[in-house]
Amino acid sequence: MAVPKRKTSPMKRGFRRSADALAAPTYVEDKDSGELRRPHHVDLKTGMYRGRQILTPKNKEALASFLPRRRQTAVWQGGAKRRAAVFKDERRNAQAGTLPQDRPRFISSYE
């Protein structure tokens, strides 16, 4: 049986294991629909990719709501992380039966 000639140092062991970590997937806010999506992926709600219609959406209301949502994205200045946090708060408020009335309600595909 093969036996290592020298003990593997903690530094070498760490370098070897550095590639084993799993990174969380990143999300970006789609500039057309305002939805969160993976970078360089098709927006599954609208079927758009880089300004072109690639897929036909299964839900016809999703395509109909595409143009109004484009104008609503100017409301969100905090970026994708802020948007996700707001949707999380809205879900929590919706379950409690209270929704804030001071701003418009947006529909998320991640609910």
UniProtKB/TrEMBL annotation:
Q: Where is the composition biased (Basic residues)?
A: 1-16
Q: Does the keyword Iron-sulfur apply?
A: no
Region of interest (Disordered), ranges: 1-22, 87-111
Q: Where does the sequence pass through the membrane?
A: none
Q: Per its record, what are the GO molecular function terms? A: structural constituent of ribosome
Q: Can you cite an annotated GO cellular component?
A: large ribosomal subunit
Pfam families to which the protein is assigned, alphabetical: Ribosomal_L32p
Any single biological process term in GO: translation
Q: Does the record bear Ribonucleoprotein in its keywords?
A: yes
**Keywords assigned by UniProt, alphabetized:** Ribonucleoprotein, Ribosomal protein
Give the matching PANTHER family. Answer: 50S RIBOSOMAL PROTEIN L32, LARGE RIBOSOMAL SUBUNIT PROTEIN BL32
Its family remark reads: Belongs to the bacterial ribosomal protein bL32 family.
NCBIfam families this protein is in?
rpmF_bact
Name used for this protein in its record: Large ribosomal subunit protein bL32
Upper lineage is:
Bacteria, Pseudomonadati, Pseudomonadota, Alphaproteobacteria, Hyphomicrobiales
